[in-house]
Amino acid sequence: MHIQPNRLVVSPCDWCGSSQYEVLFQAPDRLEKLPGVFRLVKCRVCGLIRQNPHLKWSSLKEYYPENYASYNFLIKDHRNWLHRLDKRYGPWKRRRAIEHYQKGGRLLEIGCGTGTFLEEMLYSGNWQMVGIEPNAKVAANAQKNLGVPIFAGRFSEVPLQSESFDVIAMWNVLEHLEHPVQDLRRVYTLLKPGGWLVLSIPNLESLEAKVFGPYWSGWDLPRHLYIFPRKTLRQILVSLGLRVVAERCLSTSYAMLGITLEFWSQSWEKQQPDLKRLLLRVYRSLIVRAALVIPLAVMDRITLTDSLSIFAQKKT
């Protein structure tokens, strides 16, 4: 099904401003299976990958339904203690990584969803926190459940004081922004001198992206408007006055590989539906999950898994 032209925006590269590009591929919404076919292009000048044309926000927000992944339960709301432990592992690793560089202070999370990361940071007791979430209902519930101020709206629309945060976190958010470079400039102004930007992006250099190509979960059309090659993102951050201190893979490898397998299997499920069910059932088994712990940990260490986290400091 084609999208009406009046719902689309044609845009130049957000980094270099060029309108020259090469088409990479077109794909449907594989995650939510909502209407449309969407196109990814690569800037011929700087190499930044973007969706072009892309949906206007008034239409794109329809592609974030109530059961969207970022709108999951808070960890404390899971009944099974093993499930709570499992769900806490990722946010705990993120907290530990941040507190290696900054022990406490004022923290802003952009795109906080239901607040699972903010929930984890509450356990520290060393942070004053603020969240931003574009879904008004989700933002209101997060504020009610956590007692943390959560602004409803897009980052570019929320009024915030300059140089007022020690840490700004953007977990798998940058790729969703219509003007990510402009938003990163604003992040810079909001950080205190010596403050930290911590963000994660789909890792275009991951083994998963290379093996599965257009079925890689990191593309996630139409929600992901930009995909950043690592080198290009480094250049952007440095040009804004940030010093890239570390690049790491944290915590989400197993789940994201499962989504990629689901996307890949969509290409042949009509011919082999039983095989698809068997593949996903085997992958989700405890035996396979346990067997993948060490290989995925090794791949994390050499930054070849699906999500890349970057720690960048504002110069003093």
Please specify the SSE layout and strand pairing.
Elements: E1 8-9, E2 21-28, E3 37-43, E4 49-51, E5 54-55, H1 57-60, H2 81-101, E6 105-110, H3 116-124, E7 127-133, H4 136-146, E8 150-152, E9 165-171, H5 180-190, E10 191-202, H6 207-212, E11 226-227, H7 230-239, E12 242-249, H8 253-265, H9 273-283, H10 286-301, E13 307-314
Parallel strand pairs: 6-7, 6-9, 7-8, 9-10
Antiparallel strand pairs: 1-5, 2-3, 3-4, 4-11, 10-13, 12-13
Helix pairs in contact: 2-3, 8-9
Summarize it.
The protein is built from ten helices and 13 strands. Helices cover 35% and strands 24% of the residues. The strands form three sheets. Strands 8-7-6-9-10-13-12 form a seven-stranded mixed beta sheet, with helices on both faces. Strands 2-3-4-11 form a four-stranded antiparallel beta sheet, with no helix packed on it.
